[in-house]
Write a structure and sequence with these properties.
The structure is a single chain. This protein has about 100 residues and is of the alpha+beta class. The protein starts with a strand and ends with a strand. The protein has three helices and four strands. α1 runs antiparallel to α3. InterPro entries: Dimeric_a/b-barrel, DUF1330. This is DUF1330 domain-containing protein.
Length: about 100
């Protein structure tokens, strides 16, 4: 069993976002995390939130929810997030979280 998030992003700088992904993947692996699916989307037809500006959708999974929480609060990850993610992503929507 694992814990997974389905996430929608509004990526505004593809190159910078790819730098973020490259820099964070080794940290993600340290916490047992991985990406499952990853899509670029061109149009959102329906949304349960006001933000309909989603152009990237992916799943990210961890062995346990506590591993996910530890990853997202890790100092090294937060440094990478500040350096790359914040300037490349306008908004984040957590579509769903679940045990798989």
């Amino acid at each position: 069993m694992s814990y997974e998030l389905l996430v929608g992003l509004n990526v505004i700088d593809d190159r910078r976002y790819q730098e973020y992904r490259t820099a964070m993947k080794p940290i993600l692996s340290q916490f047992g995390g991985r990406f499952g699916y990853d899509f670029k989307v061109s149009e959102v037809l329906q949304s349960e939130v006001e933000n309909k500006d989603i152009n990237r959708v992916f799943t990210i999974s961890f062995p346990k929810q506590t591993d996910m929480e530890a990853f997202f609060s890790d100092a090294e990850y937060l440094n990478v997030k500040t350096r790359y993610f914040e300037s490349s992503v306008k908004s984040t929507t957590i579509i769903s979280s679940y045990e798989k």
